[in-house]
């Protein structure tokens, strides 16, 4: 049975207008109909570019951002139906690790206070002696010496702070940990240490992870299943190896083709899919398939009218799901990519390198280069 | 940051490559670090000396002042247009009503300190309460509180002080209330803005996801982290309150007893003899400036010491 089940989850942020009498004039559909199933003891990777709604999805599952509609079921319990008091009790079962470890630790709180606070809040038995023992265990588990208990966050390095963040997430013995970009704020050398720590902890405490990231390599390294998000919806979901070997959705294909290959010969000759245009506004998403405005495989029918559901394509591998009307045809090579001409972007034939209109190509490349640009505006390097 | 400091502080120690070591010096809270920085700042030292001087003088005025501030036994030494200047008996001379100026300045510190502290306490308490209310709840509570504060802000301070004096009569209480009310919106807006900023911080989300209650988050995390600018503002407000109190006294709003030693009133009185005895205006003026300067220097140094941007 799945530990976490998310059904048709929507998070719409209202856009208000008017100074005195505010009325809602629209909504930013940050998450728009997401289904997820995360099995106990596994890692679920969630990738997507900046602004696709992956962090909002994570926070909505945690109920840190209140979802507009849909359901989140944790261990058989529908958590969206819970009142505030019950919800606080349920929070023991799932925790979050944040992107920026400095921002996620209260600068005025010592390590001891940081780790004791949740124990006290949930009235975990053991008294101060028991709590102190638990804290020492935790510090040991995340690889920090016991001597740090009286220290403050600003006295630690970035990697150590993230270890503290992880220790805090573990205090209440949760079953599920949602890690929102757990390593992207860290140096590359520290990234590996923290990722390995997460893996080690998973084995030791049989934890379930949902890892949100824009770094495709990180997600591949730790995930069993990976889902790709685009503009508030999941476009493809598959076992990690399968997804990286055989992406079916045009967006995933473009994403994968942007990952540099560490071989100059291959890098020189391999074909790349350069997407045109920018991510459309989630306040006014395209009709039909969200991706049809930028899709090189867009067909005359269905794409701009019907929103494709996430469906399993068992002919490739079990558990490989894709939200594309023409996934089979694309896989079979029946339809070929063609040029995309958004009004505001110059034309570059898909699959060609940046010859000619470099500026336009650059703009899109920034979005997908080496994974995805975190928080960068289109065209930023 | 901390690691580099340690490496730099230990010549011949391990190479800086060991990025994951934990420093061995005693732990320091942010507050203690700030105090350390504060005491290293010469400006802060000057300010603190001025403040201590001011406070000590105010408290021990009867011991320091050679005469009573209302004793006019030297009236016979005063001639129209001729007022005895500094002498061994009267360090700052005698005023037109035959009183010892030095003693009056010493006693005046009491009045200024009293008005400053009381009006700050009143204004800050009310402002902080409103700020916490708006910052902790947000939404419509925030809107209502902030519109109320805006209304307070729209009334000119001096006009309000005159109105209060007209309603409650000329008294010290009116002055204190007037200065306090002027300060309420400043504190309310400052704290509310800071709290709203902190509310969206990751550590607040983390606390929420840990199931910590709303009130604990507000009072244990959001409020302490929003309080720094309020502390700084409080120090600076004391300086302003002293100047404002003097200003109100100058306009004759401070109290019904004209003989009470009050720096602002001394300025008013000195105005009449400005051509013949200009120094009578300089002494109280200087006292006001030094007291206000002390609090301003400490306030500004505090801001520097507490500002994360100055943190090493």
TrEMBL record, chain A:
Residue ranges annotated for the ABC transporter domain, each copy included: 15-256
Coiled-coil ranges from the UniProt annotation: none
GO BP terms in the entry: peptide transport; transmembrane transport
Molecular function GO labels: ATP binding; ATP hydrolysis activity
Family to which this protein belongs: Belongs to the ABC transporter superfamily.
Keyword Signal: no
Domain of life: Bacteria
Listed CDD domains: ABC_NikE_OppD_transporters
InterPro entries recorded: AAA+_ATPase, ABC_transp_ATP-bind, ABC_transporter-like_ATP-bd, ABC_transporter-like_CS, Oligopep_ABC_C, P-loop_NTPase
Record keywords: ATP-binding, Nucleotide-binding, Transport
Name the record gives this protein: ATP-binding cassette domain-containing protein
From TrEMBL, chain B:
One biological process term in Gene Ontology: transmembrane transport
Entry's localization field: Cell membrane
ABC transmembrane type-1 domain: residues covered: 109-299
Name by which UniProt lists this protein: ABC transporter permease
Membrane topology annotation: Multi-pass membrane protein
This protein's GO CC annotations: plasma membrane
Region (Disordered): 1-28
Chief subcellular location: membrane
Organism, as annotated: Jiangella ureilytica
Family: Belongs to the binding-protein-dependent transport system permease family.
Segments crossing the lipid bilayer: 44-65, 113-141, 148-168, 174-191, 230-253, 281-302
Pfam families assigned: BPD_transp_1, OppC_N
Keywords: Cell membrane, Membrane, Transmembrane, Transmembrane helix, Transport
Signal peptide region: none
């Amino acid at each position: 049975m799945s530990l976490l089940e998310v059904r048709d989850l929507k998070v719409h942020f209202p856009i208000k207008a008017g100074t005195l009498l505010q009325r809602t004039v629209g909504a930013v559909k940050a998450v728009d109909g997401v289904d997820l199933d995360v099995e106990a003891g596994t890692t679920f990777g969630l990738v997507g570019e900046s602004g696709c709604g992956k962090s909002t999805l994570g926070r909505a599952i945690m109920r840190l951002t209140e979802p507009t509609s849909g359901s989140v079921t944790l261990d058989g319990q529908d958590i969206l139906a819970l009142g505030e008091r019950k919800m606080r009790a349920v929070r023991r079962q799932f925790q979050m690790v944040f992107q920026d470890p400095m921002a996620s630790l209260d600068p005025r709180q010592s390590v001891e206070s940081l780790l004791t606070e949740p124990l006290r809040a949930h009235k975990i038995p053991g008294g101060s002696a028991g709590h102190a023992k638990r804290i020492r265990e935790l510090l040991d588990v995340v690889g920090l010496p016991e001597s740090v208990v009286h220290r403050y966050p600003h006295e630690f390095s970035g990697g150590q702070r993230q270890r503290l963040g992880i220790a805090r997430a573990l205090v209440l013995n949760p079953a599920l940990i949602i890690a929102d970009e757990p390593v992207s704020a860290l140096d590359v050398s520290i990234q590996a240490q923290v990722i390995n720590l997460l893996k080690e902890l998973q084995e030791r405490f049989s934890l379930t992870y949902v890892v949100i990231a824009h770094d495709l390599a990180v997600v591949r390294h730790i995930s069993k299943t990976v889902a790709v998000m685009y503009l508030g919806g999941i476009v493809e979901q598959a076992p990690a190896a399968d997804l990286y070997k055989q992406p079916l959705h045009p967006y995933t294909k473009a994403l994968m083709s942007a990952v540099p290959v560490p071989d100059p010969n291959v890098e020189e000759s391999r074909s790349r899919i350069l997407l045109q245009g920018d991510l459309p506004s989630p306040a006014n998403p395209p009709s039909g398939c969200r991706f049809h405005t930028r899709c090189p495989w867009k067909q005359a029918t269905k794409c701009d009218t019907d929103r494709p559901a996430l469906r399993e394509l068992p002919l490739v591998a079990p558990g490989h799901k894709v939200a594309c009307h023409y996934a089979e045809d694309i896989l079979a090579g029946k339809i070929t990519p063609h040029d995309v001409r958004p009004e505001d972007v110059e034309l570059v034939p898909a699959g060609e390198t940046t010859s000619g209109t470099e500026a336009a190509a650059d703009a899109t490349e920034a979005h997908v280069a080496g994974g995805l640009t975190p928080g960068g505006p289109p065209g930023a390097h | 940051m901390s690691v580099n400091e340690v490496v730099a502080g230990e010549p011949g120690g391990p190479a800086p490559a060991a990025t994951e070591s934990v420093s061995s010096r005693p732990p320091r809270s942010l507050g203690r670090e700030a105090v350390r920085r504060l005491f290293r700042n010469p400006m802060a030292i000057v300010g603190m000396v001025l403040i201590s001087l001011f406070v000590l003088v105010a408290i021990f005025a009867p011991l320091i002042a050679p005469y009573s501030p209302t004793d006019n036994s030297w009236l016979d030494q005063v001639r129209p247009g001729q007022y005895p200047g500094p002498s061994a008996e009267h360090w700052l001379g005698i005023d037109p009503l035959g009183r010892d100026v030095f003693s009056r300045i010493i006693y005046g510190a009491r009045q200024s300190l009293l008005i400053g502290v009381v009006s700050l306490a009143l204004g800050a308490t009310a402002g902080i309460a409103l700020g916490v209310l708006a910052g902790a709840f947000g939404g419509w509570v925030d809107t209502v509180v902030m519109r109320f504060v805006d209304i307070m802000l729209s009334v000119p301070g001096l006009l309000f002080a005159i109105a209060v004096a007209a309603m409650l009569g000329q008294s010290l209480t009116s002055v204190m209330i007037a200065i306090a009310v002027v300060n309420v919106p400043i504190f309310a807006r400052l704290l509310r803005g800071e709290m709203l900023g902190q509310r969206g911080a990751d550590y607040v989300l983390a606390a929420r996801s840990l199931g910590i209650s709303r009130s604990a988050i507000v009072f244990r995390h959001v409020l302490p982290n929003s309080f720094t600018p309020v502390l700084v503002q409080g120090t600076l407000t004391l300086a302003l309150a002293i100047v404002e109190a003097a200003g109100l006294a100058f306009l004759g709003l401070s109290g019904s007893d004209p003989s009470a030693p009050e720096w602002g009133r001394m300025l008013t009185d000195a105005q009449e003899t400005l051509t013949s005895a200009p120094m009578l205006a300089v002494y109280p003026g200087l006292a006001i400036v030094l007291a206000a300067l002390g609090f301003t220097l400490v306030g500004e140094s505090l801001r520097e010491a507490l500002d994360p941007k100055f943190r090493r």
